[in-house]
Amino acid sequence: MSLKVLSVASEAYPFVKTGGLADVTGALPEALAKHGVKVTTLLPGYPSLRARAGALSEAHSFTDLMGVPARLLMGELEGRSVALLDAPSLFDRQGGPYSDAKGKDWADNALRFAALGKAAAELARGAVPNLAFDLVHAHDWQAAMALAYLKYSDDGARAPPSVMTVHNIAFQGRFGADIFPKLGLPARAFALDGVEYYGGVGFLKAGLQAADAITTVSPTYAREITRAEFGMGLEGLIAARSGVVSGIVNGIAWDDWSPSQDLHLAKTYDAQKLAGRDANRAALESLFGLEPAPGPLFIVISRLTWQKGMDVLVACLDALVAMGGRLALLGSGDAALEDGFKSAAVRHAGRIGVRIGYDEALSHLMQGGGDAIVIPSRFEPCGLTQLYGLRYGCVPLVARTGGLADTIIDANTAALAAGVATGFQFDGMSDERLIHALERVSVAFGDRKAWRGLQRQGMKADFSWDRSAKAYADLYQNLIRGRA
Ligand code: ADP
Ligand code: GLC
């Protein structure tokens, strides 16, 4: 049986990406197709998407969607089935998907993403003739209101089943109660089992409450978010609904991230020809102004934020250099962290190189030339850069949390003896713990044969989408059967 799923998201690679969410919503549809699921992805009509909209045709129009006119444009874009919410006054503006060029959240984000949710619900309820969906899958708070609009539609009982995926529970879409009258929901929706959240409106909360199933992006994170330390205020709801919560670890787009055919590399290679990485390391050294040295070249590709533990890493950079390490960092985020890394690069010219910004091509080259990727996150729902690191033989050094705990096998004595280690993990976020972990990597790097073993073991790990896509397909089937 072929299933039709409407996936709702605020970003999807290759159309618009600010982080891992886009990698997942971009890659999952192709993987699901192999399991008999046809996904259509509804995205906001940002400028990057409008520019490609010529290939789409108008399928529906709204005279008043959150107070503005809008259209649904549908069709195939780069081999993907896409529905575009063309609402120029909400989405056709310069800047990022969520914030302006200076990083300030758009003041009307509540209405922008309520509109996305409302449009999704209308589409799922049959707004376009002869187009029916068997299930709605909403990703993160920006898409979550789709499920609330379905729940509170007149024929809510007949709405298709729904899945809410949490990619990061720290981002919740919380707004003041004053927004509620503008949402066009019935008064009864402003309630504990609806959209009300600590006296205001919570978009993610509303989606979690309305969804038939809740998933998050790793089994460990699924457990972590039932606790106050990780649940960010939603732990009670998650715990109460634990019967429908599961963790499905992300995969990676296997062909886009393949060192044997990656056009972004100076030299392609595979597990048998790891010496090919040397040319990529040399390219990195020259791009980041690093001097050749015998110690490991650490890399970081990350949002520079507290979540990612970047404040702790900044404090460890003198020690990293003192132990013979070098660092190439690509990222952007908190101004104070950007400054901290930039000044370390000045202090340790030739040893630390920093690129502030976003550069997809460079991120590939870094995975292909770096020796070890450092991911000291305080929490990490799944994390993708450690999976790219595994595939590229760039050995991951990660904090033992969320998806990082689930995807990396620490090189402890037992794992080394069994030949199954793929990286390094550390517990407890502190300068001392991170420095100790960096030292473990430096020492291991000194044993070339053992290091090659670690790289090859990581490269064997299969984090292609296949298994996880099957898990989503099974979940969809079960929910649809449950309704029948
Ligand atoms: P998160 O989504 O929390 O930021 P993930 O590890 O899941 O973390 O995904 C991050 C994605 O964004 C990866 O594809 C990573 O390579 C990419 N990325 C992060 N920062 C940059 C950057 N500055 N330049 C290019 N790619 C980046
Ligand atoms: C979020 C999480 C990250 C995860 C990504 C994709 O951005 O922070 O851990 O990998 O979503 O699911």
pLDDT averaged residue by residue = 97
Binned strand content:
15-25%
With strands numbered from the N-terminus, the spatial order across the biggest sheet is: 3-4-5-2-1-6-7-11-12
Name of the CATH class of the largest domain: Alpha Beta
Largest sheet: 9 strands, mixed
Report the helical percentage: 25-40%
Question: How many structural domains in the coordinates?
Answer: 2
User: Which parts are unreliable, with pLDDT below 50 for 5 consecutive residues or more?
Assistant: none
Superfamily (CATH H level) name of the largest domain: Glycogen Phosphorylase B
The number of strands is 18
Please work out how many helical segments DSSP would assign: 20
Shape designation: globular
Strand pairing plus helix content: what structural class?
alpha/beta
- How far is the N terminus from the C terminus? 14 Å
Q: What do we call the CATH topology of the largest domain?
A: Rossmann fold
Radius of gyration: 23 Å
Structural features, described:
This protein has 484 residues and is of the alpha/beta class. It has two domains: 3-251 and 466-483, Glycogen Phosphorylase B (Rossmann fold), CATH 3.40.50.2000; 274-462, Rossmann fold. The protein has helices at residues 20-33, 47-50, 88-91, 109-124, 140-151, 203-210, 219-224, 228-231, 235-240, 277-288, 310-315, 317-322, 335-347, 360-369, 385-392, 402-407, 413-418, 431-445, 448-460, 466-483; strands at residues 3-8, 37-44, 57-65, 68-77, 80-86, 135-139, 162-166, 174-175, 196-197, 200-202, 213-216, 245-247, 297-304, 326-333, 352-356, 372-375, 395-399, 424-426. The protein has a nine-stranded mixed β-sheet, sandwiched between helices. Helix 1 (20-33) links the parallel strand 1 and strand 2 (37-44). It is globular, with a radius of gyration of 23 Å. 51% of the residues are buried. Bound molecules: adenosine-5'-diphosphate and alpha-D-glucopyranose (GLC). Adenosine-5'-diphosphate binds at residues 19-21, 23, 301-303, 330-332, 358-360, 363, 382-385.
